[in-house]
Amino acid sequence: MAMVCINCDAPLPEGAVFCAKCGHRVATAAEPGATPATSDIVQFALPPLSQPPSRRRMHLPWFAPMAVVLLAVGVYFIVQHQTAGWQVSLRANWTSVGTGSTVHLTATTNKKVDGSGNFITIKDADTGAQVAMCQQGDTCTADVTQNQAESQGFVATIGDVAHSSSVRVAWLDWNLQLSTNKTEVTPGTAVKLSASATGAIDFSRYDLAILDSTSYRVVKDCGHSASCTVQLSQKTEQQDKYFARVSDARMNVAESTPVTVAWAFTRHVALKVDWSSVGAGSTVHLTATTNRTVDGSPYPIMIADSTGSQIAVCREGRTCTADVTQSQAISERYVATIGNVAHSAGVPVVWNDWGLQLTADQTRIQAGGTVTLSAQANSAIDFARYDLSIVETATSQTVKDCGHTSSCTTQLSRQAEEGDNFAVHVADANGEDIADSDPVTVSWTFQWTITNQNSGTGNNLNAVSFSDTNTGWAVGDNGTILNTMDGGATWGTEQSGTGDNLNAVSFSDADNGWAVGDFGTILHTTDGGSTWTAQASGVHAAFNSITFTDLNTGWIGGRGGAILHTTDGGATWVIQQSGTSDNINGVAFVNATTGWAVSDAYEDGRSHILYTSDGGLTWADQLSNGLVDQNGYEAALNSVRFTDPNTGWVVGTGGAIFHTTDGGTTWDAQPSAANVTLLGVTFPQAGSGWIVGAAGTILHTTDGTTWSREQSGTANDLHGVAFGDEGNGWAVGAGGTILHITGQ
Q1: 3-class secondary structure, 93
Q2: C-alpha span between 589 and 604 (Å, rounded)
Q3: In the list 544, 549, 564, 597, which could disulfide-bond 610, CB 3.0-4.6 Å?
Q4: Which of 610, 601, 567 is nearest to 583 (CA)?
Q5: Cβ atoms of residues 383 and 406 within 8 Å
Q6: What pLDDT is attached to residue 741?
Q7: What is the CATH number of domain 269-352?
Q8: Are the folds of 358-445 and 448-743 the same?
Q9: What is the pLDDT of residues 545-567, one digit of tens each?
Q10: Secondary structure (3-state) at 512
Q11: pLDDT tens digits, 173-208
């Protein structure tokens, strides 16, 4: 190739060092960086920098564009040397499988990718998500599992230089089912089980089988098939469950819903009930009976209600029984079954509201009068199994047995003053109590008269006690003891042997009595008061109350919280710890262990009601905050009386009356007809009570709740009251006052 000067384009001879035309120096091969003239590469001579710019103008040879093209082609072939010739393919071991199955994907290249800077990648063809990537070798694998039915495409790539065709895999619902032509047959009869799955699934990789669900024994191996059948028979009574299963080489992938087949003899079951219309709270008896025994059978006798809840299960014999009780009105239906092979007809049972009612033609009547009570129950109830009756609630005594009927009437009369509660009562044939009506209260009342009796003394009388309607004693100030043997028509004086005030008296019978008073005085008589002897108390406090439950057992209450107890008729008295320093004004016991004591509020500002259940060995205060009288002040309590272990009353200042029906756990205020200090209370019989107090106050109740004021005829304070029977009582008070209370 000819050489030219790059400064002036003049031809240069071979081996020239300088241009002959412009004098530009050209390097030789012998010089450093020189290029021989024979070189195939064009040499360009550059003008010296010392020349002016016009002389240094660039002149490119005619072949410069071709050189640029040749350079680009070279670069292209270098790149092609790195990317050309790559190929990749992708395959799946299964393309149609059931949900839960695993598919194995394999990508293969025509040469290894080690050190090439390219990776083999398997991707989700739909989302582009990468499934696997391999940096070495010529293969890449991935396992893909789907638990839901779907179709998914996959593709393999080598960087951006090669892509495989897409491979699509379908995960299909199994729709695995097992059916039977019969579910209930007699022993020895064959049944056909048919298993089937989705036919679109390639079953060449799966095994279909039918199994016993209890033992997991394979009863039919269907092989690589989407469906199959098998016939089974059992010689004995039994109940079996079967299911279809699909598994691959590694694991179970699907199971069908089980099918139950019962091999059983022809059976019948009947259910009956002893009563179909009963009252709430009653028990009915259900009996299921079969035509053959269930001994050794897998089918027990069952009794169930309308919700399917089991009432009874019996695995032996031919009968099964159950007792069912409903406490509320309800209608229910029961059925008996033998497994799944026999069902009885439903048996309805109705529990009815009793609708019990008791009415009285009058609720307040004079003693000796007659009241008519009428009982009524729900007539829809079959009373052939029940007994209806009218009872007195306090004693549970039957006043009318109505028998097997839903209604009846009776007439009652009381000669004494009393208030009784009555109710309708229902019991079943076994005497079991079933239901009671709300009670009705009937009060028989006396016409009361109060007359003054001559005591023969002007001393204050503080207490009175009667052993019967004729024989009584009154005690008072200055050692006064009075006695009557004729119901108070006459009162005589007995010699007490003391001048101290006597504040309380108690007689166990007509002969044995005790009187107590100031300065620790205790007097005792065994001859009805003809003679009185002193007993040692061991204390100097004034005694305010006394009570005996028999000839030997008694208690005394007094000032400063004093409580004394005897178990030998007063031969010895033992001090008990009351726990208070307030004055004990009243003591009452219903038996040898259970009693109460009440106090004023002078020492600690609140009253006390003390309770014992061990005869006074320990006393506990039933009040936490005391009791408030009708004026809003703390009541000082003066007297207490209980008619039974639960029912009692206390009275005190400011017209205070409090009542308990739970043995003193709670106390409820009752309105009184007098806002004065109340000093004594007694109940000759349950419901009929009397209270006396200041300014001649006498209060009376016939129901234990409502108090009315009686005209006493005196303004003197009345300190004590006692009855010889339900119609004869006496009140004593200031100035020797004795009043006789009579009712008729």
Answers
A1: coil
A2: 25
A3: 597
A4: 601
A5: yes
A6: 96
A7: 2.60.40.1930
A8: no
A9: 999 999 999 999 999 999 999 99
A10: coil
A11: 989 999 999 988 888 899 999 999 987 888 888 999
Q: How far apart are CA 11 and CA 488, in angstroms?
A: 180
SS3 for 269? strand
What class does CATH assign to 88-172? mainly beta
Mean pLDDT, range 46-63, rounded to an integer: 46
What does CATH list as the number for 358-445? 2.60.40.10
Distances (CA, A) of 337 to 27, 267, 288: 121, 10, 9
Tens digits of per-residue pLDDT, 37-50?
333 333 333 444 44
3-state SS, 629-684, equals CCCCCECCEEEEEECCCCCEEEEEHHHCEEEECCCCCCCEECCCCCCCCEEEEEEE
Average pLDDT over residues 302-314: 95
In contact, 110 and 138? CB cutoff 8 Å: yes
Q: Does domain 177-263 correspond to CATH entry 2.60.120.260?
A: no
Question: What pLDDT sits at residue 16?
Answer: 64
Widest Cα–Cα separation across the chain: 188
The domains of the chain are located at 1-83, 88-172, 177-263, 269-352, 358-445, 448-743
CA dist 522 and 533 (Å) reads: 8
Amino acid at position 163, single letter: H
Nearest alpha-carbon partner for 275 in 263, 284, 264, 287:
284
What pLDDT band is residue 433 in, cutting at 50, 70 and 90? confident
Q: Which of 632, 636, 565 is nearest to 598 (CA)?
A: 636
Q: Identify the bridge partners of residue 337 per DSSP, sorted by sequence position.
A: 302, 343
Superfamily of the domain at 448-743:
YVTN repeat-like/Quinoprotein amine dehydrogenase (2.130.10.10)
Which pTM value belongs to this model?
A: 0.53
Which residues does 528 contact at the CB level (< 8 Å), separation at least 6?
Answer: 471, 483, 510, 511, 513
Q: In this structure, are residues 117 and 191 in contact, taking their beta carbons and an 8 Å threshold?
A: no
The answer on pLDDT for 79 being more than 70 is: no
